[in-house]
Write a structure and sequence with these properties.
The protein is α+β, with helices and mostly antiparallel strands. The termini are far apart. The protein contains three helices and nine strands.
Length: 190
């Protein structure tokens, strides 16, 4: 009986949807250089973003989640506008805001390093209207600080860093299949 119970539990666990509770993305500059990472973790109050990037100018920079998982350099406009599933105004200080993708500014130290944590309230890595993973989005860091009220994007200047937040299905689709015409590996096995 005990063995049957364990077997049933294993079957139930294996049938569950494997929705990510954490995801790490690479952040790239306009030249295509990887300059850091952002780890996204599902929390009860939203999504925690642990950001660590380098080579920024010292000072404050806007950071936002954008609506498409596309980081086409040099301007990253392929990422679209701020992620805004509820149709609100831009800005954490705007009385009719904020976009779901609006976040507090990050500060680069004297060496140009940002190493910190931010919570995106109400966002999720799970399925739903407020999911930043389900259809995919992008994390963008801007040249200047976000003033928190100016429409449509806080007067932040150019987009200077971008990381694609893609659903697992898109990431797996990118993996290359093996080449059946590649005989080099087969010769080694013989």
């Amino acid at each position: 009986m005990r063995l049957l119970s364990i077997f049933l539990i294993l079957i139930l666990v294996s049938c569950q949807n494997h929705t990510p509770s954490a995801k790490t993305i690479d952040m790239y500059n306009a030249a295509g250089d990887m300059v850091g990472t952002a780890k996204l973790t599902e929390q009860s109050e939203g999504v925690k973003v642990e950001i660590k990037v380098e080579n920024l100018t010292p000072g404050f920079h806007g950071i936002h989640v954008h609506e498409f998982p596309k980081c086409k350099a040099p301007d990253f406009k392929s990422a679209g506008n701020h992620f805004n599933p509820e149709g609100k105004e831009h800005g954490l200080m705007h009385p009719e805001g904020a976009h779901l993708g609006d976040m507090p500014n990050v500060e680069a130290d004297e060496s140009g390093l940002v190493d910190g944590e931010i919570i995106i309230p109400e966002a999720t890595l799970l399925d739903g209207n407020k999911s930043i993973v389900q259809k995919g989005t992008a994390l963008i860091i801007d040249e200047d600080k976000d003033d928190g009220v100016t429409q449509p994007s806080g007067n932040t200047g150019a987009r200077i860093l971008c990381g694609e937040i893609k659903p697992e299905s898109e990431e797996k689709a990118k993996e290359s299949p093996t080449d059946p015409t590649d005989t080099e590996d087969q010769e080694e096995e013989d």
